[in-house]
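Running this now, will post back.
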Amino acid sequence: MHVPDGFIDAPVSAGAGVVAVAGVALALRGARRELDDRTAPLAGLTAAFVFAAQMLNFPVAAGTSGHLLGGTLAAILVGPWTGVLCVSVVLLVQGLLFADGGLTALGVNIVNMAFVTVLVGYGLFRLLLRVLPRTRAAAVGAAFAGAVVSVPAAAVVFTGIYALGGTTDVSIGKVAAAMIGVHVLIGIGEALITALTVSSVLAVRPDLVYGARGLAKPLELRAEPVSV
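Update: finished.
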């Protein structure tokens, strides 16, 4: 999914850069409402986890591989605005230090992997929580569904960007078939990782999961009676 330098022409890359800067600026304002004593430390851990998970590729099909995008997972754990910031920071570090995604294509990558995955994945997650039973199992299922849809959605948006400014001779039909087909499979891997991670955090600290806070019972302090 990481777009390298030169794959998208300069005008479209610049336009995506403007959209990315504006979106990150909005996310910085929105994150102030999400970050508190619980989510602030978790945001750092989430960004570190997404960074590490994106370095690990899993086989998909026909010699291709995929990796976690992390937008849906980050949004569920720490909130959508903060999730955008987490993934954007990961993409910036990867581009600067590991040449994973071109710097001129950073805006394209942020739009695809941060904005689209958070918007589609978290949006579907919240929508499903409104209609499903308010249980942890339902939250995990909604996380799976949001993640599995978010990845091909990002591939669709990338295909649209390529249609506007692609610089190769590959037809838009072949790009769409390759990107969407492979990323449907990658989405399954993304969904499994997302569901397992959300399930694990819900099992031990449900109050830390931003997207499922309404499902968590307030912590209770229990004191055993002491015989004198």
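The first strand starts at residue 58 and ends at 59. More later if anyone needs it.
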